[in-house]
Amino acid sequence: MDYQIDNEQAKQEKPIVSIVLVALNIIVFLVCTFTGVLLYNIGALSGPLVIKYGQYYRMITAMFLHADIDHLVGNMIFLYFLGAMMEKELGHIRYGILFLVSGLCGGLLSMGFEYYSGNFIGSIGASGAIFGVLGGVLFIVIKNKGKWESITLTRLIFVIAYSLYYGFTATNVDNAAHVGGLLSGIIITALLYQTKRKELTI
């Protein structure tokens, strides 16, 4: 009986959502290697196609499309390791909400910047959602007075600052999605934390 309880607890601690998200991104990328531009054409985020033609699904499908293997691997490393930590802290459902809503918020700001700049090139990648996870980690580190597990506030700020700097200095990087994801991730995690605390006190 004790073994069954421990085994069930171990299952609960596995980062199921993080594993599924990484697997989906890899599978979609492999499909893209055989179908060429097909999935990019029907799934990339584009402000005019979303707003003018009502193709709202693109705000989700774009999160699972990556330009090349470097783009994919870089995002998946961040997604798995930081995502597993956040999933353990928030729980499966709350973490899934954080990822999805951060990605949507990043997409909204990305489309807004498209209209502001008049540069309608579209975007792909899970970066907005991943920056949302980074924002969530930042909230928890601050909440824990500058340290959470092996992450310190100084190191985390350096990672965030470097990532944003790289985005602003490199070409073909959706910086608006990064900023939108980061800011929304902080807010969403704060709200999710409140719901978690309320459940624990009931």
Q: Return Rg in Å.
A: 18 Å
Number of strand segments: 2
* SS field, number of helical segments: 10
Provide the domain count: 1
CATH class: Mainly Alpha
Oligomeric organization of the protein chains: single chain
Physical arrangement of strands within the biggest beta sheet: 1-2
List segments where confidence is low: pLDDT < 50 over at least 5 consecutive residues: 1-11
CATH superfamily: Rhomboid-like
In short:
This protein is mostly helical. The chain is built from ten helices and two strands. Strands 1-2 form a two-stranded antiparallel sheet.
Question: If you had to describe this structure to a student in words, what would you say it looks like?
Answer:
The chain has 202 residues and is an all-alpha fold. It has one domain: Rhomboid-like (Rhomboid-like fold). The protein has 10 helices and 2 strands, in the order H-H-H-H-H-H-H-H-E-E-H-H. It has helices at residues 2-13, 16-35, 38-43, 47-51, 58-61, 69-90, 92-117, 127-143, 153-169, 175-201; strands spanning 147-148, 151-152. It has a two-stranded antiparallel sheet. Strand 1 and strand 2 (151-152) form a beta hairpin. Helix 2 (16-35) packs antiparallel against helix 6 (69-90) and helix 7 packs antiparallel against helix 10 (175-201).
Features:
10 helices; two-stranded antiparallel sheet; mainly alpha; single chain; 202 residues
Secondary structure topology:
Elements: H1 2-13, H2 16-35, H3 38-43, H4 47-51, H5 58-61, H6 69-90, H7 92-117, H8 127-143, E1 147-148, E2 151-152, H9 153-169, H10 175-201
Antiparallel strand pairs: 1-2
